[in-house]
Amino acid sequence: MSSMAAMRIPHDESSCAIPELSTVWLRAFLEVARAGSFTVAARALGWTQSAVSRQVASLESALGGGPLFDRLPRGVRLTEAGRALVPYAEAVTRSLRGAGRELAALREVASERLRFGAFATADAALVPQALAALRARHPAVRVEREEGLTADLLDRLTAGRLDLTVVSTTGRAAPNAHDLHHLLDEPLYVAVPAGHPLARAGGVRLAQLADADWISGSDRPEGTLLEAAVRHGFRPRVAHVVGEWTAKQGYVAAGLGVALVPGLAASSVRPDVVLLALRDEEAPLRTVYAATARGRSVSPAVRAFLAVLREEAARLGCAMAQAAFRG
């Protein structure tokens, strides 16, 4: 910081003018205040004693000419004005150090690559909006993205192919071999065709659909959203195995079955499909995490992406809660 650098000090609004104060003056003042001596302060700063005296004198002059230190036979002591100035001077220097650290972190983030993965429905809203926020704040970060199932993404994370993954659990224990950063808990809905007898019900219990044909990403409910049905007392009959969410909607719309839909995908439902809120007392929730490799250092780019993921997850979580309440 140049000796010509200046910063305003908080001042009574009734005052006619707010003095412009050099941060170098404030640095010299604080060092003398801490040391209780111009000589000791000069050694700590690597300056001459006369240079320290000049900076403090300039500060006293800018503040109206009154002394900030009483000169004693051995050292100095803060005057009442000096004691009043200390917290403001500390706040200024603390803010400048914080700004320096943040700017250094921004430079470091800008030079990095971010490799991340996400499960499919996280790409409906959470991930793209977080990426847009990351690009706005750190446009130089190089992003590489992969899509996959939670188990596969965690394997890639463990192998070092990814820096972060967005993963989910549905009523099961969270994986414990990684560091998990909670993002949100999303509700599950049942998708039915618009002409279904329950389409106007607004809500449904899973047991009401025990005899229905289901559209699922696997012919076995274990490890899928349909595992919730097993916990609610029946084993669903999977009529069609369809992996991609928009294709599942097509099968539902055609009357070929019903499907469980996570809250993150609810905003992209087609108009000939109706989403029914689950009314079970313990309606299943899917927990969404950002996962990083345990024991591996987290880069500034990953920290920056985590921050925007949390922000976007909080916004989406509020929106889903409001939608559930209206339902």
Strand content: 15-25%
Terminal-residue CA separation: 58 Å
Secondary-structure element string: EEHHHEEHEHEHEEEEHEHEEEH
Q: Taking all residues together, what is the mean pLDDT?
A: 84
Tally of strands: 14
Determine the structural class based on helices, strands and strand pairing.
alpha/beta
Unreliable spans are 1-16
Helix coverage percent of residues?
Answer: 25-40%
3D shape: elongated
Q: Count of helices? A: 9
The major pleated sheet works out as: 8 strands, mixed
Please compute the radius of gyration using only Cα atoms.
31 Å
Question: Which characteristics define this entry?
Answer:
single chain, 327 residues, alpha/beta, eight-stranded mixed beta sheet, two-stranded antiparallel ribbon, 9 helices, 14 strands, 39% helix, disordered N terminus
Task: Give a description of the structure.
The chain has 327 residues and is an alpha/beta fold. It is 39% helix and 24% strand. It has nine helices and 14 strands. The two termini are 58 Å apart.
Describe the SSE topology.
Elements: E1 6-8, E2 20-22, H1 23-35, H2 38-45, H3 49-62, E3 69-71, E4 76-78, H4 80-110, E5 113-118, H5 126-137, E6 142-147, H6 150-158, E7 164-170, E8 178-193, E9 203-204, E10 213-216, H7 227-231, E11 237-241, H8 245-253, E12 259-262, E13 273-278, E14 285-293, H9 300-326
Parallel strand pairs: 5-6, 5-7, 9-13, 10-11
Antiparallel strand pairs: 1-2, 3-4, 7-14, 8-12, 8-13, 8-14
Helix pairs in contact: 1-2, 1-3, 1-4, 2-3, 5-9
Summarize this, please?
The protein contains nine helices and 14 strands. With about 325 residues, it is of the alpha/beta class.
